[in-house]
Amino acid sequence: MSTVVPGSDFARAILSLYALITWITALIGLLVFVVLLWILVRFRARPEAPLPRQIRGHTLLEIAWTIVPALVLLVIAVPTIQGADSPCCGTTQRGSPLAKSGRPCGINPKRIASSLTNFR
Q1: What is the CATH number for 77?
Q2: Does some domain include residue 115?
């Protein structure tokens, strides 16, 4: 069992959360790269161009770059909290490991203790 090959419902939930965060990060990175490339080409220095006028600020832009990261964090936080809040990722039907053992996802304390002692 690993994060690449999940062996339980909880591991699958973690893997899907990793995938969500990876795709969000990739899209943000791609967007930043494209905007940066556009800005570099559009506003490059030219010998015949006059100096640009100085501006103080852009209120809408400043509000946007405060709200957009907060929304990204919200998109990441919702599935994280849902996954961490549910026992065994919501599988508590009859016959599930939680119903049989009373422990989420069939966690076996003896197996965990033996794997810790064999770690050396």
Answers
A1: 1.10.287.90
A2: no
Among 86, 85, 79, 89, which residue's Cα sits nearest to residue 9? 89
% of the chain exceeding 90 in pLDDT: 23
Burial class (CB in 10 A: 0-12, 13-18, 19+), 44: exposed
Number of folded domains that form the chain: 1
User: CA-to-CA distance for 16 and 73, rounded, in angstroms?
Assistant: 16
Residue 73's nearest CA partner among 21, 34, 32 is 21
Candidate ranges 28-32, 48-52, 74-78, 89-93; pick with highest mean pLDDT:
28-32
Q: Which domain holds residue 29?
A: 9-85
Give the span between the Cα atoms of 10 and 22, in whole angstroms: 18
Q: Per-residue pLDDT for 6 more than 70?
A: yes
Give the model's pLDDT for residue 23.
92
Neighbour count for residue 10 (Cβ, 10 Å): 19
